[in-house]
User: Fold these one by one.
Assistant:
Number 1:
Amino acid sequence: MSATSAGRDSRDQFGTVAFYAALGRAFVVMCAVVPALFAIELIDQATGHDLDRHAGILTRSAAGLDGIVLAPFLHFSWAHLYGNSVPLLLTGTFVLATGAKRFLAVTLLVAVTSGLAAWLFGPTGGDTVGASGVIFGYLGFLFMRGLVEHSWWTIAVALLVGLLFGVALSGVVPGDPHISWQAHLGGLLGGFLAAVVFRQRRRRPTQPADDLPSTITIPTVG
């Protein structure tokens, strides 16, 4: 096993120094992401919510396709942003701790699946913005990753965050007409898919050199 692989395994092992170091670095990065969202919302508020109108996911409208990528950065109000900030900080930290490249890949996939679900199945004339679809994607990724990689602590994190914020069951079924359950469900399913597609494949340890035979006999034909 290479030093890189050993370091990665140590980082994923709950309770190790590498695990806590990766978690700490990820938390610092996510603490910078959240203020950036507040800065975007400040600009949106100052422009009379022009960003929401022009960069949101407009249901089944070609003009709203760019919102699939842009909408997670936008929110309709400060209360909307406040409600998403803490779960985004927590779930994003644990996903980012699994590796920056995987974090970016997971984020892109769940943003696309969440956005497409809202664009295809949202109410006619709807305009969807917000990071909640990505949050559900992170929850789905953490839960499914625990199953496919036998990382039980990630299942515990997903269940705990989901229960604390009441999103595990209520957010993916029709209910409040002001909440896009389609985006939530699309993100959750995207998270499940991301955990499988981007799963970490553990390398089998190579045979030590000492175990190799010291001599090789080549048979001859007489």
Number 2:
Amino acid sequence: MTGRAEPRILITMGIADVRESFLSGAGGHLDVRDVGLRYAEDGRQILQFTGWHRDGTPFAFVSAAFAGDPGTRAAEIARDLIAAHRGFSHMPAPAPIQALAQTLRDHLTEATRRADSVATKAKQSVTNLHSILDNAERVVQDLDTAAADIQAALGINTNGGPPLGPGS
């Protein structure tokens, strides 16, 4: 004994089962040569795979230490190797992240719809304001015309200079 507690490991899945899970997850896209299962100091599992993609490209993969079912992890690793080989730019997001993304898309769609409505109303209001200003300009022109008509009718002529005082 070394003085530290040795982890108790209960192996519930054999290496043949891990190989089968990996090949099942690969769906015929990978040929596996070697499969390994070992344990980290903390008792978590580490999987190792080597083999070839169907196009002849070799792969070698060592997982990070994990807890849980090695068969499930082996199938995930196979799918990830295939996706990486095909050049997919992203892996599928977990369900909670997909749900959050959908919620955000829904809110953005509603915000965009609302912004379009506000923009339409603003355009209508600006058009109405221009119409009112056009009418105001016409009223001012009519006032100027009426003042000129009154001035002409009264015979008030001016040269535009200052008014003449008495005795000028």
Number 3:
Amino acid sequence: MMYSYKELREQVWEANMQLPAQDLVIYTFGNVSGIDRANGIIAIKPSGVPYEDLKPEHMVLVDMDYNAVDSGGNPSSDTKTHVVLYKRFPEIGGVVHTHSTYATAWAQAQLPIPCLGTTHADYVHGDVPCTTVVTDEQISGDYEEETGNLIAESFSGLSAVDVPMVLVAAHGPFTWGETPEKAVHNSVILEELAKMASITLGINNAAARLDKTLIDKHFYRKHGDNAYYGQQ
């Protein structure tokens, strides 16, 4: 889909404003981006600007080579990570990064979030993966781009559509979707799944992962060509 710069900025601004509204961020934590794939232009939150001060015209436009487009502001420091994801996952149209409490706690624990129940399976086809920890060499190189590469590498053998979220070890969560709004929706879901898993394992630290048959049933009744959940 092709957008005007104004339309793209407004869409991404509205998605960014959902992060504090959904209690996923505080102060300047986190960012949302969206892409106009027809023109190869990305809009993203400006770096270090509090949410209460954000306006649509503040959204920064960059191309797929990180060059500023029609904008004088500095884009989010995570912009290169977003761009890597757009390049690696051509089916996505929006990316979100937060430091939401429970999802970040799992990232700091450097563990995937196991699929322990059908609520999780309704939204994610299996565990929420966690990347490896970034190396000293990657840190001293292009850190944000390497963070995107870590995410992409963790999806070897996984579908970015069936698993629209990831934990970056020792850092925090990223989610994505067909649109910026859907990417924010997936961030809300991820935080809830992380919270449920934390509570479940606190009650029973030997709680078992869900059987694949039940995971498949719950996931595919809501997703894919044969889905039958909701109004068709």
Number 4:
Amino acid sequence: MSDDGLLQIQELLESAQASLKTATSMLRELTGVSDPLKERLVSRAVRPSLSAPVSGRMIEGIFDGQNMIDSAGQSYPVPANYASKSKLVEGDGMKLTITDEGKFIYKQIAPIDRRIAKGVLIQEDGQYKVLAEGKSFRVLLASVTFYRAEVGDQVTVLLPSVGEAKWAAIEAVLPKHLAEAAAREAISQGALEEDDGELTPVAEDAPAEEEEAPKKTRKKKAA
């Protein structure tokens, strides 16, 4: 590609970034908030200290489920493998150290209070999500591959104890034999019924077959 082509691409990118900033500014003026969730995370982020170490730059921020957001609203991509293995939860406080060599070192410094929820792994709009508590939460692809989870698996996820969240952290994948055992137990307790291999909830107002059979028998005797 020629230098003119590269220059044109750079100008287009700068123009797009300027337009995005202008649109964000207009939205903020009209509504007062451009992204409520991001604003909440930014407000919790700690501004960088003026006494940063000589050997590198240190930045503190809040994990948003995929990136770290600092007090200025700047985002820093957190390695997905690290986030998955560390089971970072949206809202966790983090510290980023940028060494003189340009190496990014992340560390979790203020874990948010979390709770565990059970759900099912689904795929929606080309993204992996967990359907739990009547909502769908995005999960990192690295977490799905790390736990070798498949669509339809029952999983447990970590969520913030307080407030709304868009992301969840996979805690564990329920082994298939345990999931099947739980389903069989639900069937035995009458919470589910099996129809051609599929499990469906039992309608509370559906008449039981045991109640219908005597009626049919009485009709035959009356005839």
